[in-house]
Amino acid sequence: MRFILFTLLISLPIFALLLYLVVLIIRALRKYVKGAPVREETQAVRASLSEKLRENRMRCKMTQEFVAEAVGVSRQAVSKWENGTSDPSTANLIALAKLYGISAEQLLGQL
User: Fold this and answer.
1) In CATH, what number is assigned to the domain containing residue 73?
2) What is the domain range of residue 23?
């Protein structure tokens, strides 16, 4: 009888812990699934920004190296911005807009 009570006392907290872990995993999965539209919207915005950056650089007949020197970053950074791998900082975005002779809002595609 004591052995059964002892076994129950030990296994009950372990069961509760496992149940809690399962609940946490389910919550994380639900949050991930619900976040899909946000990830898709972010990807679309990043794609449109990268396209605008490339279009404006080509319109101004500038090389990536020239843009990088003018803004004060590496050529690889400009390449990543145009490929959509990364986004320019706010300061770099403003510098790019000035370099291309347009407003930052136009560069972001809001006008």
Assistant:
1) 1.10.260.40
2) 1-34
